């Protein structure tokens, strides 16, 4: 099908796009997307130019790359880097998969920033959002209208963030890596918890975007940045309540960053199941 200068080839619902100058100007663009009820064997040398994400929905298969062999089953997927030789095939049929290929001037830096370094297999704790986006991406790509290139770019971008958000940490080293990356922000919060910190302040300490800051905190602590700030402030408040029993609760609140005493008491009781004064009296 040809519309507005774009050429899209659709085979069995799978969409293969001819990339125009419009797509090449996008930071990330889709090159093809589809679904197989039973993935057939693939062997590629180092000549495939795009990144790929292949999400397994049923059965089981094997990926071979760089001398390593990985098993992939439902709930898992594989991120394949361009120009890396690889082979994959089913070991338990039907091996159902969704798949897409993408590229773009910002694709390498985005994946590197999110620490997706090289071909790898990931376990996705919540695959449903990804699968929903696969279906949406397939339907949008098939329309072959230029404006859909921009929409597809946004969907692919959000799918990469979903991989970062829902990709399971597989070992302690991974968590330690994220923690190390957060160290400047943790130091800032520890030292300036009493000030009206913003998400921009925290992100600036890391030199990354606010969205990426939120993802780092989620990956490391399972909470958003300001949930962590609240945790630090309440810890400091408990220390102060016990260390300075003569200090009014209102002063304790201000000392840890809360101008409104009533809000501080409400938050403290919500988290500790008792008021600051009860904590002080019975600790």
TrEMBL record:
Cross-referenced Pfam families: AraC_binding, HTH_18
Domain HTH araC/xylS-type: start-end pairs: 183-282
Origin superkingdom: Bacteria
SMART domains, sorted: HTH_ARAC
Protein name: HTH-type transcriptional activator RhaR
Coiled coil: none
Keyword DNA-binding applies: yes
Keywords: DNA-binding, Transcription, Transcription regulation
Keyword Cell wall biogenesis/degradation on entry: no
Cited PANTHER family: ARAC-FAMILY TRANSCRIPTIONAL REGULATOR, HTH-TYPE TRANSCRIPTIONAL REGULATOR EXSA
Organism: Paenibacillus allorhizosphaerae
């Amino acid at each position: 099908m040809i519309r507005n200068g774009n050429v899209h080839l659709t085979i069995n619902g799978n969409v293969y796009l001819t990339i125009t100058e419009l797509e090449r100007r996008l930071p990330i663009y889709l090159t093809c997307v589809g679904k197989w009820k039973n993935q057939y064997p693939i062997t590629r040398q180092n000549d495939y130019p795009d990144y790929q994400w292949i999400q397994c929905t049923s059965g089981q298969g094997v990926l071979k790359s760089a001398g390593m062999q990985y098993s992939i089953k439902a709930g898992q997927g594989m991120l394949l880097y361009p120009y890396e030789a690889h082979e994959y095939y089913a070991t338990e049929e039907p091996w159902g998969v969704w798949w897409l290929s993408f590229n773009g001037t910002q694709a390498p830096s985005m994946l590197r920033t999110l620490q997706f370094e090289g071909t790898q297999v990931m376990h996705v704790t919540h695959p449903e959002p990804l699968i929903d986006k696969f279906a949406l991406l397939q339907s949008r790509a098939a329309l072959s209208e230029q404006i859909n290139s921009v929409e597809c770019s946004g969907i692919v971008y959000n799918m990469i963030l979903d991989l970062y958000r829902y990709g399971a940490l597989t070992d302690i080293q991974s968590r330690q890596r994220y923690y190390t990356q957060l160290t400047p922000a943790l130091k800032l919060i520890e030292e300036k918890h009493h000030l009206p910190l913003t998400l921009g302040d925290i992100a600036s300490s890391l030199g990354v975007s606010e969205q990426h800051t939120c993802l780092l905190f989620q990956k490391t602590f399972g909470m958003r940045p300001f949930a962590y700030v609240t945790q630090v402030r309440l810890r400091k408040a408990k220390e102060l309540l016990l260390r300075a029993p003569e200090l009014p609760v209102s002063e304790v609140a201000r000392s840890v960053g809360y101008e409104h005493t009533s809000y501080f008491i409400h938050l403290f009781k919500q988290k500790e199941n008792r008021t600051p004064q009860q904590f002080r009296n019975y600790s």
